[in-house]
Design goal:
Largest sheet: 5 strands, parallel
Number of helices: 8
Radius of gyration: 18 Å
Strand order of the largest sheet: 2-1-3-4-5
Distance between the termini: 21 Å
Shape: globular
Helix content: 40-55%
Length: about 210
């Protein structure tokens, strides 16, 4: 699942980007507000984490622009401002949640998960599809009550697919969901992950369409 992280503080940005990647997210880390706005216009992100005070364009200004063009991407606003008026201003700009620095990665990840499942219209933090249950909090899945032994990439692929059951994905779309800008991707990486995921799920769960084997 691909996330945009906008944070101009080098140490915090690096720590959050690395931490989120270890949790299995594909992260595009950007430090400039104008570049963030462009990336959000050009790329389909599952969610965005935006610092308030970005160079050239602030987080609330970026969010207001997103909502004006009907972009409903979930946004978590990250800032050192902790006054009531600041929280109100951030939420009124269109942010879905608000986290005051310093922030612990565990809290940030929990809030991010909550944004994602609410954006999908889920009423509980588990995704169920027949006998398949996917648990984003633990990045785990069970099939008919049996735990599936999945790699981080296989889990990320599975979560991407079950969030929109029945949707057809191209290889490029799956690569975008699984890998950030700065990650090298082997030409057959998605096909390999799909092959292993199909083998672990069994027949009928993931069907190939067109050019994906």
């Amino acid at each position: 699942m691909r996330i945009l992280l906008a944070e101009d503080g080098q140490s915090l940005g690096l720590a959050l980007a690395d931490g989120l990647r270890q949790l299995g997210y594909a992260v595009d880390w950007i430090t400039d507000g104008t570049q963030v706005a462009t990336a959000l216009s050009d790329t389909d992100y599952a969610a965005a984490i935006l610092d308030w005070n970005l160079p050239r364009r602030s987080g609330p200004a970026i969010i207001a622009g997103m909502r004006h063009r009907q972009d409903a991407t979930p946004v978590l606003l990250l800032t050192a401002r902790d006054g009531l008026s600041d929280r109100v201003a951030g939420l009124d700009a269109g942010a879905d949640d608000y986290v005051v620095k310093p922030v612990h990665l565990d809290e940030l990840a929990a809030r991010l998960r909550a944004l994602l499942w609410r954006a999908d219209g889920q009423l509980e933090p588990a995704i169920r599809l027949g006998a398949l249950e996917v648990l984003p909090a633990g990045r785990s899945a069970t099939l008919a009550g049996t735990t599936l032994e999945l790699t981080a990439r296989e889990y990320a692929l599975l979560e991407t697919l079950v969030r929109h059951p029945g949707r057809a994905y191209s290889r490029d779309q799956l690569e975008d969901a699984l890998y950030g800008w700065d990650q090298e991707v082997a030409s057959n990486a998605v096909e390999v992950h799909l092959h292993h995921l199909r083998r672990k799920l069994g027949p009928g769960w993931v069907r190939p369409l067109g050019g994906i084997a």
